[in-house]
Amino acid sequence: MIRWKYTFDKDEEQEWLNEYAQQGWAMVSFFIGMVTFAPCQPGEYIYQIDLLPGKGLMADNYEDYVIFMNEMGVEIVQRWARWVYLRKRAEDGPFEVYTDTESKLDLYRRIRALFLWGLVIEACCSVTGISTLIRFPEDMFARCLAGLYIVIVALFLRAVLQCTRKIRELEREGQ
To answer: Who wins on pLDDT, 44 or 93?
Structure first.
């Protein structure tokens, strides 16, 4: 079964994957919003999503990360750049990659930094679309291009703000 889910919210996507696992559907792959599921026992897996430390799209020490996760009984289902989809058998007990406030803060700061990076790139690219719209205001392609850039910038901005909100919540919890 293939389902479409493209979100800029790690927690929302993680909850969605775990809901499917509870219904007897295990994620087997992900590519640009298309998630492929295979039948499993209801509640067989618990999913977590991680963003590895690194620069841009390149992860630091990925090989060590894989070894560590394997030692913990965690399966890496899918990796896309620094995003990693993980699962563990529910019968092995609770599964949470980050259990303390400081490591959760680090995770959301990494996610925010990645989205900020994307926001800056998209904002720079949108200059082209908007300048084309200014030069050719009646051109439907220019309108669509400018609209697309605005939507993408808004999505990245929303993701940055969500991460900032989560960081503030965690900082309050840690005090």
So the answer is: 44
SS3 sequence of the chain: CEEECCCCCHHHHHHHHHHHHHCCEEEEEEECCEEEEEECCCCCEEEEEEECCEECCEECCHHHHHHHHHHCCCEEEEEECCEEEEEEEHHHCCCCCCCCHHHHHHHHHHHHHHHHHHHHHHHHHHHHHHHHHHHCCCCHHHHHHHHHHHHHHHHHHHHHHHHHHHHHHHHHHHC
Cβ atoms 83, 51 nearer than 8 A? yes
Rounded mean pLDDT of the chain?
Answer: 89
Find out whether 79 and 85 touch, Cβ atoms under 8 Å.
yes
Q: How many residues does the chain have?
A: 175
Q: What is the pTM of this model?
A: 0.83
The pLDDT score that the predictor gives to residue 39 is: 95
Percent of the chain at pLDDT > 90 equals 52
Between CA 64 and CA 69 the distance in angstroms is 9
**Residue among 112, 153, 147, 115 nearest 130 (CA):** 147
